[in-house]
Specification:
- The structure is a homodimer of 336-residue chains.
- The first copy, chain A, folds into two domains: 141 residues, Medium-chain alcohol dehydrogenases, catalytic domain (Quinone Oxidoreductase, Chain A, domain 1); 149 residues, 3-Layer(aba) Sandwich (Rossmann fold), CATH 3.40.50.
- The first copy, chain A, is of the alpha/beta class and 336 residues long.
- Chain A contains eleven helices and 15 strands.
- The first copy, chain A, is 28% helix and 27% strand.
- Chains A and B meet through helix 9 and strand 13 of A and helix 9 and strand 13 of B.
- Strand 13 of chain A pairs antiparallel with strand 13 of chain B, so a sheet runs across the interface.
Chain lengths: 336, 336
C-alpha cells in the first residue's frame, strides 16, 4: 500500500468556484491489479473545460461525480506496471486525475514523445490537448486563406497563442484580443501577431474598426459575452466561426447571446460550428507532426504559466476565468 | 410607346405589409435601346425574401429603393428585342419586376427550358429559385446520410416540399412541420414524407419527441421563432442546420433567439450555416439536371398555389407570412 494526494469534487460550484467545492486529501492507493499501471504525475493541465466537468450542465462527456477525484489533463512517468508493454519510466499523457499518483488501465492516455531540447512542460503544454484544439479548430473549421483577417480572443492563453501563430503561417492578418499590455506585447513581439487589442484599457469596437476596417473573416471563439458580440458584428460575408469555448458563460447562471445574430448569420452567410478537441482524436498524429515541425523550425513558440504544488491547483484554476494566467496554465506536481 | 402595369414601393413597411406600402399603377414604357429586350411576364414568383427587399435592414443585395418598381422572380416571353441572340418568343426566367411588361438588358435572367408534359408554372415554380435553394441547402450544408432524421419547417411551401422529397431520396426519415391538416396530409400522402406535425393543432415538442425519440440530425430552417427553438432543443450530436430563412422575424421589429443556444452548439458540436441561393448560381446547372431527372422519374412532385391577376400581388404576398399559401406561391400575370 502506498499513499497519494488528490483533489476530490465535494460539491458542484454555483457561479464561481468557491472554497470547499474541491477538497484536498491524502489517501491510500490499493495495490495494482493485472492490466493496470501507476503514474507519478509531473504536470497537471488546468483548462477552462474543468469548470464544465464540475457542473451538471449539458456537456460533451459525463460530468465528474460528486465525491470523485477531479478529472484533468496530466502527464507523468510510469512507476509500477502490471500491464504488458508498459514499463517503469515510460512517459504518458492524457486524461487523468488531479493527483500526484494515478492508477489506471491506460484508458484516455497515450505515449508522449520526448523531444530533444524541448522541456517537458512545453511539449505537454503544446502537443497535449491545446495544440490539436488550435490546429483542427482553425484549419478544419476556420479554413484560413492568405490575406484573410483572423481574430483570436484569449490570445495569450494556451490555445490562443497557437491559433494566432498557425494563422500567421497560413498567411492571415492576425488580431489578438487579450487582457493587459504584457500579454498584448507578448503575442505581437514574441509570437508575431499583427496586432493585439487590450480589452482592459482599449475600446474593442473602435480598435477592431481601426485594425480590420474591411471586417473579419474568421473569429476563433473561446470567450463569448460582449467581446464576442463586438467581433460578430464585424464578420464579413461567408465568415467562419470555430466555436471552441464560451468561457465567460461557464461560471454564469445565464448565458449571453448576441442579439439579432440569426438574421445576421443568414444575411452574411456565416458558418458557426461547435467542436471539442476529442472529436479529432483519430487525427492527432497529423496535428502533432505538423506542430512538431513548426516548433523545430522556430515558427511555433508557446509560453507556459507553471504553478508549483498540487495543493495550489484549486486556487490556480480560478485564474482561467479572470484572465489571471499568462500562457498555458500548468501545475507542477512533481519536478520533471 | 406602349404601357405597362407595375407595382412600386411607395414606402417601407413597418411590421406587416400595409395597404399603401406598395402602389399599383399604369405607366408608359420607353422604346427599347440597343442591347435591351422586353419581356411579357407570365408568372411572378412571390417569396418570403420579398419582405426583406422592401425593408432597409441588413440584407444580401441592395434593398428596393422607395419609388422603384418592386423586385421579384419572374418568367416570361420576349416580345421585342434589340439584343443579339434574343428573339421574340424566347422564354426567360430570373429576377425582374412586379410588372406585366419588363424592359431589360438581360441581367439576372437566363433561358428557362421548356419541358414536354410539364406545365410552365411547375417548371418555373420548381426549377426557378426554390429548387436550387432546397437542393444546395440540403445537400451541401445539411449533408444528409441514410437513416438520419431531417426536420423541415414550412413543409408544404415552395422550398419545403422539395427539401423533404430530396431527403427521402437520400434515405432520411423526414418529418415536416406545417399549418393545418390539409398541408400535413399532402406532404405525407402525396410527397411521401414519413410524418408531418400540424403546429396549429398539435404540441410540436411532444410530437417531435414521439416521432424522433433519438433526436434530429438536420434542421432545414426557414421560419425561426418558437418552432425553431423546439427543433434546436432536440438536435443530436454533430447536427447540421442549413439556415435558409427566418420568416417569422421579417415582419418583426425584434428578432427572437433561442436562449442558451451558443453553449448547446458547443456541447453538441452543431453546425449552423446561413446561405442565399444566389451563392450557388455557378452550380445551378447541376441542381437543374438532378431535379429535372427526379421530376421525370416521378420522384419529385411539386404543387403551385397560383393566384390570377398582377393587381392581386400585394395581397397575395402577405399569405407567405401567415401560412396562407399551399405550395409555391405564384401570380399568373398573363395566361401561359
Amino acid at each position: 500500500m502506498t499513499n497519494r494526494n488528490v483533489w476530490r469534487l465535494a460539491k458542484r460550484p454555483v457561479g464561481d468556484i468557491a472554497d470547499g467545492d474541491l477538497v484536498y486529501g491524502n489517501e491510500a492507493v490499493p495495490a495494482l491489479k493485472d492490466g493496470q499501471f501507476s503514474l507519478r504525475v509531473t504536470y497537471l493541465s488546468l483548462d477552462p473545460t474543468n469548470r464544465i466537468w464540475m457542473s451538471d450542465q449539458e456537456q460533451y462527456m459525463p460530468p465528474v461525480e460528486v465525491g470523485a477525484a477531479m478529472r484533468g489533463g496530466v502527464c507523468g512517468r510510469v512507476v509500477e506496471s502490471r500491464k504488458e508493454g508498459v514499463n517503469p519510466g515510460d512517459l504518458y499523457a492524457g486524461l487523468g486525475e488531479w493527483a500526484d499518483l494515478i492508477v489506471t488501465d491506460g484508458t484516455g492516455l497515450s505515449r508522449l514523445p520526448e523531444i530533444p531540447g524541448v522541456p517537458l512542460a512545453a511539449s505537454f503544454g503544446t502537443l497535449g490537448l491545446v495544440g490539436p484544439t488550435a490546429y483542427f479548430g482553425l484549419l478544419d473549421i476556420g479554413q484560413p486563406k492568405p490575406g484573410e483577417t483572423l481574430v483570436v480572443s484569449a490570445a495569450a492563453g494556451g490555445v490562443g497563442q497557437i491559433v494566432g501563430q498557425i494563422g500567421r503561417i497560413k498567411g492571415c492578418k492576425v488580431i489578438g484580443i487579450a487582457g493587459g499590455k504584457a500579454k498584448c506585447d507578448y503575442v505581437v513581439n514574441e509570437l508575431g501577431f499583427d496586432a493585439c487589442i487590450d480589452y482592459k484599457s482599449q475600446d474593442v469596437r473602435a480598435e477592431l474598426d481601426r485594425l480590420a476596417p474591411e471586417g473579419i473573416d474568421i473569429n476563433f471563439e473561446q470567450v463569448g459575452g460582449d467581446i464576442m458580440v463586438a467581433v460578430l458584428e464585424r464578420m464579413k460575408l461567408f465568415g467562419r466561426i470555430p466555436l471552441c469555448g464560451m468561457i465567460s458563460s461557464y461560471n454564469a447562471t445565464e448565458a449571453s447571446e448576441p442579439p439579432g445574430f440569426w438574421t445576421m448569420m443568414l444575411m452574411r452567410r456565416l458558418t458557426v460550428r461547435g467542436f471539442i478537441v476529442t472529436d479529432f482524436a483519430p487525427r492527432f498524429a497529423e496535428s502533432g507532426a505538423a506542430m512538431l515541425g513548426w516548433m523545430m523550425e522556430g515558427r511555433l513558440k508557446t509560453r507556459q504559466d507553471i504553478r508549483p504544488g498540487l495543493e495550489n491547483a484549486a486556487t490556480a484554476v480560478k485564474d482561467l476565468y479572470t484572465g489571471g494566467n499568462f500562457g498555458k496554465l500548468l501545475v507542477e506536481v512533481t519536478p520533471p
